[in-house]
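To the structural biology subgroup,

Please find below the input and predicted structure for DUF3027 domain-containing protein, which we are adding to the shared reference set this quarter. The sequence is reproduced verbatim from the submission form. If anyone notices a discrepancy with their own records, reply to this email rather than editing the shared folder directly, so we keep one authoritative version.
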Amino acid sequence: MISLRSRAGKPDSPLAKAVDLARAVVLEVADPAEVGDHLGAYAEGERLVTHHFSCARPGYPGWYWSVTLTRAKRGKDITVNEVVLLPGDEAIVAPAWVPYKERLQPGDLSPGDLLPVEDEDVRLVPTYLVGDDPLDDPLDTDAKAQVRRVAEDLGLGRVRTLSREGLDMAAERWHDGDGGPDAPLAKSAPENCWSCGFLVRLSGSLSTRFGVCANGNANDDGRVVTFDHGCGAHSEVKLARKQQPLPMPDHVLDTITEDGLETL
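Predicted structure (tokenized):
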């Protein structure tokens, strides 16, 4: 038996020696073939010792059986506190739970599904605080403030609009996605989207980096793309001479008459 020291000090001797009892407890909840070697005993506290046994149960590599024993002061009778199956450092365990809102991916919503936005969502701010586009500056500060006050009084426009955080999150997501510069399609493209005639530019602060593809023959049709994205459907792409299709030969005119067929 291997006795492991812990912060609680040396394991209680009678409890540390009760390996057979600990194994018998494990065998009450597991088949004999599922219980392996004794891995050691260590102190949990005063007269409180835990024994570990390797687990041979199929599907549980890296797990171990844990049995905790105790006894009263000056007592000889040993009491079983608990027996559990625990994961070790190399055990395969389920991934950490993630809230459903963080697990959602584009395309997960079905017709009729609702996804309400939290009141304190950092991506949104009240429209009257920043205007309909927080980074579009057609008016000076005083004029924009006046427009906001009027819109607030009359209840006009959208209730909330994108905040700086919301714009940055969208820009980062689009840049790192399939419409960004690192997509395999973009790396093999002959030209970038910024010079393509099918690019529809966005308005506001995102107009300096993003647009929407309007080429019905392209993979990104109707999707947001970065200016440094690209594909083979660029409006100015030209085929090299060796890539051009071979010209069709002239039609052959059949001049054989019925009399000629008889001589064949």
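Summary notes: The first helix runs from residue 13 to 16. Helices lie at 13-16, 19-27, 100-103, 127-130, 141-154, 164-176, 184-187, 258-263.

Regards,
Lab coordination
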